[in-house]
């Protein structure tokens, strides 16, 4: 509950005093939730209608939110009390709805004119409930505040459109109820009262509501609660379809209510017996219900319901308290004609039918049908993994394990499901993802002695199938092994291991004579003894270092392939590559979107395919990897390192391409990892050939983490004018232009010897130009060029590095040593979470693709081809889902600043060199484009559209081209080789880009 600050309270007191004419000592105010309470007192009790009239006129001219603090929630109701001083209870109380001031004022003015003994007339005040039934968010908030404000809980209601993640379902409205209080109310206090009040409204167009509780002053919500707003009629029809007798009886009673007929229903085997008689408030001698009308309505209802497992119905018409029916009729139901409906729900459950099992469990766990219709009841989610059946039970109040688990286990024992060796039952509060408790029973003996991970259930049943994992990990321990026994065992082993290790290390330190026990008197060594000890240990360390260096040199020499000689490094000719299929009609693909062909219902892994995903994926053939060649070329390059290994290797490959062809490539692709993975040079070259631009040489110069500063540095300072292409494709996005984040890549480059070398050459050139302009300068001044500052530590470090490079065998091959050690460590069982035998073929492909990505296995065109496809459910089991609020790439987002200056420098430079510059805003997934990132993307697009008026500059926005086509992506923000193929085709077919001609 938000308390009123002193200045706000003083403002409210003065306002009430001025409005009513009562001294401030006779006025008291209090804010509770969304309610304002005003107490007016005096020597005589203030007149009710006169006081209310003054307050209502003042309320018409005043915004109460202005008189309160900014932290105070909006005020919905005002309670006005009047009492005599010295009395405890007020003599009168009046409730004012701020959204109906005109009606209140009319009622008060009418009461002033009427005699005090008569009831006040005037306008009728509408209740908040009647207004809330219309679906207005403010009216719903006022309606809920009637209950919650008494608890000191303020309410705010918002309506948001929700798009399901699968993209197939329609967009629906979701009700968000934000509760704010000075304390953290227990969810059980709010869950059922709020659920009953919301479901009582019978709101149309809302599927569910989410309650968010937050303590005043806190930034994060305390807890969340989901309430099912499915209308009671829909719930009844769903249960009636499964043959539930109570649900059928209620639906038939509702259908016959206008005839003043009540219905009782019973089920005998597969026949439904329906008894129709007049309602209880009918006259005792009322005749039996009309047969024709009853049969017509009952028949139409049962035909529409088509109850499972019920073949026929017998209908009886009788008078009140009569034992013999007046008439009888028989009806055939749809189940008698359709064999699929003839099997009962229980028989279907025995065969393993999951919807039938879910219905029977929900019916078992919701014995009170009225309670379920009022609160939404307890819901069941079912998940089968291997030979285990996992059952999640959630409700507005977390169900009790003692009440739920034994019933579920007993019921499943009766079903005796084939292939089910154990059952795991979980309980949670609706809206949570993690269970509050779990309970497991093995139906047969299972050899399982290790802990098992709890499977992930969706917060709603909508996406459960997407969250099924491939591995056979199971959720809990065997029933005969308790958690306490495992914890005790682990604790004993850890205690013994720590004691043994501590003793061993202690003895080893003491034996070196470099350490002594604490508290023990030690003899002071003489200087001579100290020198001898230092010499001995120093000599041993040096010998060990030399021996290790020699052994590693031998290993690297034997493992390095002989085919990586500099003379034999050559890029595969495009003519040697296997041609891939393309169609001439793809030339207009930039303007038309062709629908993907459907190859079947199931994908290779056995899961149903997403209709929004591309099915027949095309890509350029995989080329030979250039990793070893790039490392060797970078090691032999005369240019110092830039402290970014990928920049060194890409630059070496680029210069080797120029040396081989005798000229720079025609098209240069540059940018961050989104360019490195997102534009395929071979696919672009082939697509351009189909457009009439043959033999266009394309190179991908993408660098992980490259920002506008990095691109500016490469284009304007690293590459010579003769090494520049005719057109530059800059493929990236908004985060490369964020000047508010920390540019780690450029910082590493700026601290590199290669950067210092570039600056020194630039200063030498500028000095020579100045000397040419001023010949009176002395020769000594021209020769002395400024050198980069170097402190003593850097000088010693440089001297040691040069000495080590001259002596060491492995220094020149240090990158190969690093890769070799990484591969050896990765192959050890302790560093691998899963054994190779446990991996499916698809998972192995993914792992291999990720490994190649980590090793930056680009081809000779500089392109990083990844075959892995992005699947959200599997991806987020291995990687955290980071929203835009916590993404460092968007931290303090601003497009103006150092990155903007670098981009404008590139624009000016390319215009001066007559180089066409094309910026492509690369595609992103819907998983990545949350509201925060979307807002920044829109800001970035406006920024680029302003700059697109510059000559020789073209801007293309593809960010929302394939938001649902996850098969084109390797992760939420990076394309794979299939997506890169499609982007390359789109660029080749773009008529606005002027491609170079031979």
Model description:
It is a single chain. By secondary structure, the protein is an alpha/beta fold. The protein is 40% helix and 15% strand. The chain is built from 32 helices and 23 strands. The strands form six sheets. A five-stranded parallel sheet has the order 18-17-19-20-21, with helices on both faces. Strands 1-2-3-4 form a four-stranded mixed sheet, covered by helices on one side. Helix 8 packs across helix 9 (245-256), helix 18 packs across helix 19 and helix 21 packs parallel to helix 32 (977-988).
Q: Give the terminus-to-terminus CA distance.
A: 75 Å
Uncertain segments:
1-6, 460-482, 520-526, 562-614, 774-789, 831-855
Mean pLDDT: 77
What's the count of strands? Answer: 23
Radius of gyration, whole Å: 39 Å
- The shape, in one word, is extended
Name the descriptors:
single chain; 998 residues; alpha/beta; 5-stranded parallel beta sheet; 4-stranded mixed beta sheet; 40% helix; extended
Summarize the structure.
Helix content is 40%, strand content 15%.
Secondary-structure topology with pairs:
Elements: H1 6-20, E1 27-32, E2 35-42, H2 48-60, H3 64-67, E3 77-84, E4 92-97, H4 101-113, H5 128-132, H6 137-148, E5 154-162, E6 172-181, H7 187-201, E7 206-215, E8 223-228, H8 232-241, H9 245-256, E9 261-268, E10 271-278, H10 291-305, E11 312-317, E12 327-332, H11 339-342, H12 345-350, H13 354-365, H14 369-375, E13 379-385, E14 388-395, H15 401-415, E15 422-429, E16 437-442, H16 483-511, H17 527-559, H18 627-636, H19 645-661, E17 667-671, H20 673-678, H21 681-690, E18 698-702, H22 708-718, E19 727-732, H23 744-750, H24 753-773, H25 779-783, H26 792-807, H27 814-827, H28 841-854, H29 872-878, H30 898-912, E20 916-921, H31 931-947, E21 953-957, E22 969-971, E23 974-975, H32 977-988
Parallel strand pairs: 2-3, 6-7, 10-11, 14-15, 17-18, 17-19, 19-20, 20-21
Antiparallel strand pairs: 1-2, 3-4, 5-6, 7-8, 9-10, 11-12, 13-14, 15-16, 22-23
């Amino acid at each position: 509950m938000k308390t009123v600050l002193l200045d706000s309270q003083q403002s409210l007191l003065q306002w009430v005093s001025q409005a009513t004419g009562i001294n401030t000592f006779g006025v008291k105010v209090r804010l509770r939730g969304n309610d304002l309470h005003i107490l007016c007192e005096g020597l005589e009790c203030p007149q009710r209608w006169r006081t209310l009239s003054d307050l209502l006129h003042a309320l018409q001219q005043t915004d109460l939110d202005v008189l309160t603090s900014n932290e105070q929630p909006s005020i919905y109701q005002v309670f006005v009390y009047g009492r005599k001083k010295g009395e405890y209870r007020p003599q009168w109380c009046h409730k004012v709805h701020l959204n109906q001031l005109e009606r209140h004022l009319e009622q008060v003015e009418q009461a002033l004119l009427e005699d005090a003994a008569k009831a006040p007339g005037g306008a009728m005040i509408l209740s908040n409930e009647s207004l809330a039934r219309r679906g207005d968010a403010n009216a719903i908030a006022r309606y809920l505040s009637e209950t919650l404000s008494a608890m000191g809980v303020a309410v705010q209601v918002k309506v948001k459109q929700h798009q399901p993640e699968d993209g197939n379902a329609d967009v629906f409205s979701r009700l968000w109820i934000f509760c704010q209080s000075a304390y953290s109310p227990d969810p059980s206090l709010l869950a059922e009262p709020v659920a009953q009040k919301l479901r009582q409204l019978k709101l149309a167009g809302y599927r569910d509501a989410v309650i968010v509780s937050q303590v005043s002053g806190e930034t994060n919500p305390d807890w969340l609660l989901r309430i099912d707003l499915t209308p009671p009629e829909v719930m009844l029809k769903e249960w009636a379809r499964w043959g539930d007798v109570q649900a059928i009886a209620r639906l038939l009673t509702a259908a016959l209510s206008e005839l003043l007929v009540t219905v009782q229903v019973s089920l005998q085997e597969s026949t439904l017996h329906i008894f129709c008689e007049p309602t209880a408030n009918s006259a005792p001698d009322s005749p039996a219900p009309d047969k024709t009308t009853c049969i017509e309505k009952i028949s139409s209802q049962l035909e529409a319901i088509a109850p499972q497992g019920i073949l026929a119905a017998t209908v009886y018409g009788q008078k009140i308290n009569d034992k013999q029916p007046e008439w009888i009729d028989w009806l055939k139901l749809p189940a008698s004609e359709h064999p699929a409906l003839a099997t009962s729900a229980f028989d279907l459950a025995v065969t393993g039918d999951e919807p039938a099992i879910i219905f029977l469990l929900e019916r078992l766990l919701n014995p009170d049908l009225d309670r379920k219709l009022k609160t939404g009841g307890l819901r069941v989610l079912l998940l089968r993994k291997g030979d285990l059946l996992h059952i999640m039970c959630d409700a507005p109040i977390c169900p009790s394990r003692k009440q739920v688990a034994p019933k579920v286990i007993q019921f499943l024992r009766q079903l005796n499901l084939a292939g089910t060796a154990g059952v795991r039952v979980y309980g949670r509060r609706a809206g949570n993802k993690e269970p509050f408790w779990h309970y497991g029973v093995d139906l047969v003996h299972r050899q399982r002695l290790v802990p098992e991970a709890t499977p992930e259930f969706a917060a709603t049943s909508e996406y459960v199938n997407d969250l099924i994992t491939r591995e056979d990990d199971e959720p809990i321990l065997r029933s005969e092994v308790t958690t306490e026994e495992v914890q005790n065992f682990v604790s004993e082993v850890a205690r013994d291991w720590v004691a043994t290790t501590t003793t061993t290390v202690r003895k080893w330190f003491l034996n070196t004579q470099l350490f002594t026990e604490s508290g023990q008197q030690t003899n002071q060594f003489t200087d001579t003894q100290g020198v001898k000890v230092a010499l001995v240990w120093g000599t041993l360390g040096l010998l060990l270092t030399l021996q290790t260096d020699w052994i590693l040199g031998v290993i690297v020499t034997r493992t390095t392939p002989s085919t990586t000689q500099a003379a034999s490094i050559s890029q595969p000719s495009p003519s040697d590559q296997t041609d891939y299929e393309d169609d001439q009609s793809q030339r207009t693909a930039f303007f038309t979107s062709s629908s993907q062909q459907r190859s079947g219902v199931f994908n290779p892994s056995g899961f149903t395919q997403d209709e929004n995903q591309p099915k027949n994926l095309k890509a350029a053939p995989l080329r030979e990897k250039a990793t070893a060649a790039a490392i060797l070329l970078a090691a032999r390059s005369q240019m110092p390192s830039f402290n970014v290994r990928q920049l060194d290797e890409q630059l070496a490959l680029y210069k080797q391409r120029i040396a081989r062809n005798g000229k720079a490539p025609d098209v240069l692709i540059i940018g961050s990892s989104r360019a490195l993975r997102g534009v395929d040079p071979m696919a672009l070259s082939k697509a351009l050939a189909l457009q009439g631009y043959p033999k266009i040489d394309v190179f991908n110069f993408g660098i992980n983490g490259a920002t506008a500063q990095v691109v500016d540095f490469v284009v304007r300072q690293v590459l010579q004018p003769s090494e520049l292409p005719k057109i530059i494709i800059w493929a990236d996005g908004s985060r490369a232009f964020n000047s508010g984040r920390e540019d780690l890549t450029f910082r590493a480059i700026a601290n590199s010897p290669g950067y210092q070398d570039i600056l020194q050459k630039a200063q030498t050139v500028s000095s020579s130009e100045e000397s040419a302009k001023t010949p009176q300068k002395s020769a000594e001044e021209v020769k002395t060029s400024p050198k980069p500052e170097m402190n003593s530590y850097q000088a010693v470090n440089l001297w040691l590095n040069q000495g080590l490079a001259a002596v060491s065998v492995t220094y020149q091959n240090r990158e190969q040593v690093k890769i070799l050690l990484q591969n050896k460590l990765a192959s050890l069982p302790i560093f691998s979470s899963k054994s190779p035998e446990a991996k499916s073929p698809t998972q192995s492909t993914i792992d291999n693709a990720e490994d190649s990505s980590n090793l930056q296995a680009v081809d000779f065109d500089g392109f990083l081809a990844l075959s892995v496809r992005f699947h959200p459910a599997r991806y987020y089991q291995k990687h955290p889902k980071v929203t835009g609020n916590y993404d460092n790439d968007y931290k303090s987002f601003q497009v103006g600043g150092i990155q903007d200056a670098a981009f404008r420098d590139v624009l000016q430079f390319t215009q001066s060199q007559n180089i066409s510059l094309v910026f492509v805003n690369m595609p992103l997934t819907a998983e990545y484009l949350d509201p925060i990132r979307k807002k920044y993307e829109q800001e970035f697009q406006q920024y680029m559209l302003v700059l697109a008026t510059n000559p020789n500059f073209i801007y293309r926005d593809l960010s929302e081209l394939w938001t649902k086509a996850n098969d084109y992506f390797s992760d939420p923000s990076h394309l794979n080789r299939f997506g890169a193929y499609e982007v390359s085709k789109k660029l080749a077919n773009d008529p606005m880009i002027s491609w170079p001609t031979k």
